[in-house]
Amino acid sequence: MPHRTQLLELIADYRLRYPLEVETTGHLERFVRENPDCFSRELLAGHVTGSAWIIDESASRTLLTHHKKLNKWLQPGGHADGMSDVAEVALKEATEESGLSALHLPSSAILDIDIHLIPARKNEPEHFHYDCRFLIQCGSDDHYVISEESHDLAWVPIAGLSQYTDEHSVTRMADKCLGFLDTCA
Description:
Layout: H1 2-17, H2 22-34, E1 46-55, E2 61-67, E3 73-74, E4 77-79, H3 86-98, E5 103-104, E6 112-118, E7 127-138, E8 150-157, H4 168-184
Protein backbone atom coordinates (compact mmCIF):
# COMPACT_ATOMS: atom_id res chain seq x y z
CA MET A 1 0.00 0.00 0.00
CA PRO A 2 2.86 2.51 0.55
CA HIS A 3 3.23 3.26 -3.17
CA ARG A 4 -0.52 4.00 -3.31
CA THR A 5 -0.65 6.17 -0.16
CA GLN A 6 0.15 9.44 -1.94
CA LEU A 7 -2.67 8.94 -4.46
CA LEU A 8 -5.13 7.93 -1.73
CA GLU A 9 -4.28 11.16 0.14
CA LEU A 10 -4.84 13.17 -3.05
CA ILE A 11 -8.21 11.46 -3.56
CA ALA A 12 -9.23 12.27 0.05
CA ASP A 13 -8.29 15.93 -0.50
CA TYR A 14 -10.21 15.98 -3.79
CA ARG A 15 -13.30 14.53 -2.08
CA LEU A 16 -13.24 17.42 0.42
CA ARG A 17 -12.98 20.02 -2.36
CA TYR A 18 -15.58 18.40 -4.63
CA PRO A 19 -18.08 16.66 -2.31
CA LEU A 20 -20.66 16.27 -5.11
CA GLU A 21 -18.27 13.90 -6.91
CA VAL A 22 -18.40 11.31 -4.13
CA GLU A 23 -19.39 8.49 -6.51
CA THR A 24 -16.37 9.08 -8.77
CA THR A 25 -13.92 9.48 -5.88
CA GLY A 26 -15.31 6.38 -4.17
CA HIS A 27 -14.94 4.33 -7.34
CA LEU A 28 -11.33 5.50 -7.85
CA GLU A 29 -10.43 4.94 -4.19
CA ARG A 30 -11.81 1.37 -4.25
CA PHE A 31 -9.93 0.64 -7.47
CA VAL A 32 -6.63 1.89 -6.01
CA ARG A 33 -7.10 0.03 -2.70
CA GLU A 34 -8.09 -3.25 -4.39
CA ASN A 35 -5.35 -3.26 -7.06
CA PRO A 36 -1.72 -3.07 -5.91
CA ASP A 37 -0.73 -2.87 -9.60
CA CYS A 38 -3.19 -0.02 -10.37
CA PHE A 39 -0.40 2.06 -11.99
CA SER A 40 0.47 -0.66 -14.52
CA ARG A 41 -1.09 -0.78 -17.98
CA GLU A 42 -0.77 -4.58 -17.76
CA LEU A 43 -3.75 -4.53 -15.39
CA LEU A 44 -6.31 -5.38 -18.06
CA ALA A 45 -9.43 -4.19 -16.21
CA GLY A 46 -8.01 -0.67 -16.11
CA HIS A 47 -5.25 1.49 -14.72
CA VAL A 48 -4.47 4.90 -13.26
CA THR A 49 -3.46 7.53 -15.81
CA GLY A 50 -2.29 11.13 -15.48
CA SER A 51 -3.45 14.07 -17.59
CA ALA A 52 -2.54 17.74 -17.84
CA TRP A 53 -4.85 20.74 -18.14
CA ILE A 54 -2.16 23.04 -19.53
CA ILE A 55 -2.86 26.75 -19.33
CA ASP A 56 -0.81 29.72 -20.50
CA GLU A 57 0.56 32.44 -18.19
CA SER A 58 -2.63 34.50 -18.45
CA ALA A 59 -4.84 31.45 -17.70
CA SER A 60 -6.94 32.40 -20.73
CA ARG A 61 -5.86 29.58 -23.07
CA THR A 62 -5.44 25.83 -22.76
CA LEU A 63 -3.32 23.54 -24.92
CA LEU A 64 -5.33 20.74 -26.48
CA THR A 65 -4.13 17.83 -28.54
CA HIS A 66 -6.06 16.33 -31.44
CA HIS A 67 -5.54 12.74 -30.31
CA LYS A 68 -4.62 10.32 -33.12
CA LYS A 69 -6.20 7.17 -31.70
CA LEU A 70 -9.39 8.78 -30.41
CA ASN A 71 -9.68 11.48 -33.10
CA LYS A 72 -10.85 14.06 -30.54
CA TRP A 73 -9.51 17.30 -29.07
CA LEU A 74 -8.43 16.42 -25.52
CA GLN A 75 -5.93 17.34 -22.85
CA PRO A 76 -2.49 15.67 -23.01
CA GLY A 77 -2.01 12.66 -20.77
CA GLY A 78 -1.15 9.02 -20.61
CA HIS A 79 -0.25 5.88 -18.75
CA ALA A 80 1.57 5.89 -15.43
CA ASP A 81 3.65 2.89 -16.52
CA GLY A 82 4.29 1.94 -12.90
CA MET A 83 4.95 5.48 -11.60
CA SER A 84 2.90 6.16 -8.46
CA ASP A 85 3.40 9.95 -8.44
CA VAL A 86 0.52 10.74 -10.78
CA ALA A 87 1.26 14.50 -10.78
CA GLU A 88 4.71 13.67 -12.16
CA VAL A 89 3.08 11.40 -14.74
CA ALA A 90 0.88 14.31 -15.88
CA LEU A 91 3.89 16.64 -16.07
CA LYS A 92 5.94 14.06 -17.99
CA GLU A 93 3.12 13.41 -20.45
CA ALA A 94 2.52 17.15 -20.92
CA THR A 95 6.19 17.68 -21.74
CA GLU A 96 6.43 14.67 -24.07
CA GLU A 97 3.22 15.43 -25.95
CA SER A 98 3.75 19.19 -26.30
CA GLY A 99 7.49 19.74 -26.45
CA LEU A 100 6.99 22.62 -23.98
CA SER A 101 9.92 22.98 -21.61
CA ALA A 102 8.71 25.64 -19.17
CA LEU A 103 5.91 23.74 -17.46
CA HIS A 104 5.17 23.69 -13.74
CA LEU A 105 2.53 22.47 -11.32
CA PRO A 106 1.03 25.38 -9.35
CA SER A 107 -0.35 22.73 -6.96
CA SER A 108 0.11 19.01 -6.42
CA ALA A 109 -3.65 18.67 -5.81
CA ILE A 110 -5.83 16.92 -8.38
CA LEU A 111 -7.83 19.33 -10.55
CA ASP A 112 -10.26 16.71 -11.87
CA ILE A 113 -10.93 12.98 -11.85
CA ASP A 114 -12.47 11.17 -14.79
CA ILE A 115 -13.12 7.46 -15.19
CA HIS A 116 -13.74 6.50 -18.78
CA LEU A 117 -13.91 3.37 -20.90
CA ILE A 118 -11.24 2.90 -23.56
CA PRO A 119 -12.47 0.84 -26.53
CA ALA A 120 -10.78 -2.43 -27.48
CA ARG A 121 -7.96 -2.11 -30.03
CA LYS A 122 -5.67 -4.69 -31.61
CA ASN A 123 -4.38 -6.81 -28.69
CA GLU A 124 -5.90 -4.62 -25.98
CA PRO A 125 -9.33 -5.39 -24.53
CA GLU A 126 -11.64 -2.55 -23.57
CA HIS A 127 -10.62 -1.21 -20.19
CA PHE A 128 -11.01 1.77 -17.88
CA HIS A 129 -8.70 4.73 -17.42
CA TYR A 130 -8.84 6.13 -13.92
CA ASP A 131 -7.59 9.54 -14.98
CA CYS A 132 -6.20 12.02 -12.46
CA ARG A 133 -5.92 15.44 -14.06
CA PHE A 134 -3.58 18.16 -12.84
CA LEU A 135 -3.37 21.85 -13.62
CA ILE A 136 -0.08 22.65 -15.32
CA GLN A 137 0.98 26.15 -16.20
CA CYS A 138 3.19 27.09 -19.11
CA GLY A 139 5.85 29.77 -18.82
CA SER A 140 6.45 32.50 -21.36
CA ASP A 141 7.74 30.13 -24.07
CA ASP A 142 4.51 28.59 -25.37
CA HIS A 143 5.87 27.20 -28.66
CA TYR A 144 4.83 23.57 -28.86
CA VAL A 145 5.96 20.64 -30.98
CA ILE A 146 3.43 18.13 -32.31
CA SER A 147 4.30 14.60 -31.18
CA GLU A 148 3.58 11.35 -32.99
CA GLU A 149 0.57 10.83 -30.68
CA SER A 150 -1.28 13.83 -32.10
CA HIS A 151 -2.73 15.01 -35.37
CA ASP A 152 -2.36 18.57 -34.12
CA LEU A 153 -1.98 20.78 -31.05
CA ALA A 154 -3.61 24.14 -30.48
CA TRP A 155 -3.69 26.89 -27.89
CA VAL A 156 -7.43 27.28 -27.45
CA PRO A 157 -9.07 30.26 -25.75
CA ILE A 158 -10.87 28.74 -22.77
CA ALA A 159 -13.82 31.02 -23.54
CA GLY A 160 -13.97 29.42 -27.04
CA LEU A 161 -13.46 25.81 -25.98
CA SER A 162 -16.79 24.76 -27.51
CA GLN A 163 -15.36 25.39 -31.00
CA TYR A 164 -13.00 22.45 -30.42
CA THR A 165 -14.86 20.07 -28.13
CA ASP A 166 -18.05 19.46 -26.27
CA GLU A 167 -16.56 16.59 -24.24
CA HIS A 168 -18.02 17.05 -20.76
CA SER A 169 -14.85 15.88 -19.05
CA VAL A 170 -12.87 18.59 -20.86
CA THR A 171 -15.35 21.41 -20.31
CA ARG A 172 -15.56 20.41 -16.64
CA MET A 173 -11.82 21.12 -16.26
CA ALA A 174 -12.30 24.54 -17.82
CA ASP A 175 -15.08 25.25 -15.33
CA LYS A 176 -12.88 24.21 -12.39
CA CYS A 177 -9.69 25.93 -13.56
CA LEU A 178 -10.06 29.52 -12.35
CA GLY A 179 -11.43 28.58 -8.95
CA PHE A 180 -8.64 26.06 -8.57
CA LEU A 181 -6.03 28.70 -9.44
CA ASP A 182 -7.46 30.97 -6.74
CA THR A 183 -6.88 28.25 -4.13
CA CYS A 184 -3.26 27.83 -5.33
CA ALA A 185 -2.41 31.52 -4.91
